[in-house]
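Researcher: Going back to the complex we discussed earlier. I've cleaned up the inputs and rechecked each line, so this should be the final set. Can you rerun the prediction on the complete assembly and write out the structure?
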Amino acid sequence: MPNTQEGQPGRTDVNTLGEFGLIHHLTKAFPIRNASTIKGVGDDAAVIDNRGLQTVVSTDMLVEGIHFDLGYTPLRHLGYKSVIVNLSDIYAMNAQPRQITVSVALSNRFSVEAMEEIYAGIHKACEIYGVDLVGGDTTSSPRGLVISVTAIGQAKKEQLVYRSGARPGDLLCITGNLGAAYMGLQILEREKQIYLSDPNIQPNLEGHDYLIERQLKPEARRDMIEAFAKAGLLPTAMIDISDGLASELHHICQQSGVGVLLEESGVPIHQDAQFQAIDFNLDPITVALSGGEDYELLFTIDPKDVDKVKYMPDLYIAGEVTPADDGLKLNSKGGKLHEITAQGWVHFKPNA
Amino acid sequence: MPNTQEGQPGRTDVNTLGEFGLIHHLTKAFPIRNASTIKGVGDDAAVIDNRGLQTVVSTDMLVEGIHFDLGYTPLRHLGYKSVIVNLSDIYAMNAQPRQITVSVALSNRFSVEAMEEIYAGIHKACEIYGVDLVGGDTTSSPRGLVISVTAIGQAKKEQLVYRSGARPGDLLCITGNLGAAYMGLQILEREKQIYLSDPNIQPNLEGHDYLIERQLKPEARRDMIEAFAKAGLLPTAMIDISDGLASELHHICQQSGVGVLLEESGVPIHQDAQFQAIDFNLDPITVALSGGEDYELLFTIDPKDVDKVKYMPDLYIAGEVTPADDGLKLNSKGGKLHEITAQGWVHFKPNA
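Model: Rerun complete. Updated structure for the full complex:
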């Protein structure tokens, strides 16, 4: 019996559509059948109504060899991160995560002690973020480790913030700083290559604690959601920065039907990430735009709310929302306008 | 940098604990922090309260090479089945599934057309069972295909049926028939081996349609849940039969603190499965007890409700609930009592 999915006529490589193109292509024909389904595919999380209180659901899968390398990822950190990336999606809806389910597939090269390490990390994340582990699945895999987490959150209907609410004139805000997780990954990869070429050389990670922690043990911005509530601020649109600022800007602009003008000088980049980018011959703003895995929040606010964010710590105003026709533009420190592409890479074609 | 999880002192093989032992071992230290969390790990699904209406959540992961073999599993059927196995868990709580999320990890040997086939199966299941696809994740994998589905359902608090409600004297009921999915798998495996030994021999699956469909394209028993509602029947305990009758009986008995007396003559086995078991030199009752993947319902009812089930089609009374001290027993057609072990295998030690 031949393998059914190979050698078919009309074979289209999965990479031709890109991740978001593929998800859209596969899910666009799914209608909504239940009145309780408020929002399906296409935001940070799905929204389900329960008589006014709305349930928010998000899911993410981490695959060994794609999302993590056990050569430099402690299992405990991996468990922790697998929860964080999902909680981040719930916060990006301006909701509170309450429960998670965790499914783990692993080969027999993993011991019970290895599983305990993963769950110790999951336990820590549950403790810190106040969520309950309520279910899951543990199964074998022929090789490699796969972790799939689903997070369930809750918010009042009127508190939820979608990707689609940005309006021209709104201010663009970013929390924390961008690019550090990516630079941490570059350091880990470099040291791994050095180790592989000569196992007698011990990896030198000294002085890179901040960047490496941003990569291996990220946090989700619960503090920001709580600060919003305290300040009485409701962003007009919000998304978490998991794939890089450029990609998230495209999501906001597509779903809100707007454009954006991003100020390079307004994009927060940690000093360590700046130095490290230069050390790797990379442009720091490019790293911030396309690096990913920062799990910071990108959101837009009505300009009348500017006083509410002005003194919020760790929050930066980085540009403004423009009409859709103006497209997605970066105003560089040199004062030139560059187009921001969906792939996250800035093509340096100065605008006429 | 050595791989962190290998070569550690005190390495315990994952198989020593068994799947349920491992889940319990890893999740027992997770406390419940949110008032909305009614039931966490340990039933067919978790239960989350929303002001009286309760949300039910279940998740299952299917891994290539462990749960399915693409040598004989059409991708469309695989997509369908990946949804069904989760809906079955929701029905086993006496709840209605409403939404699903689907995460797929796949290597680049899969084409867009292959993904479309998987999603066509998911689409069909959503259509037939009236559920909404509301989210998910599509990602690469270094090799192989992994599908993780989370199903979300809803029920009024007083309608939910847990594994823990069985009481001595209750009647034990089984829907449909058992063992057919397992026999279908045996046929598919046999024909695959024949094909592998000589690719010129075409697989001969003729006459085995029923068994093969039970394996490749199972259904979930929504019809039974609806029949219960119509008859005003509330089972005292319920579970879906995914790992084999023996394993599910152990779950019910452990969580309800009871024993069970199962009548071999009351266990429904389809004629095709009977014949095929004998053809494979297997005892049909052993196949029913340990085969798995039937996605039928096992439930217990108060004896005063017997009139409500007596004329329900496709439903069989197969024994009764006993005190915990009596253990789990099978009364064979020969009139002998055998112990039912957790692994599903009946050891033929006649009771004194």
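Model: Worth noting: The first helix of chain A runs from residue 18 to 27.
Researcher: Good, that matches what I expected from the previous run.
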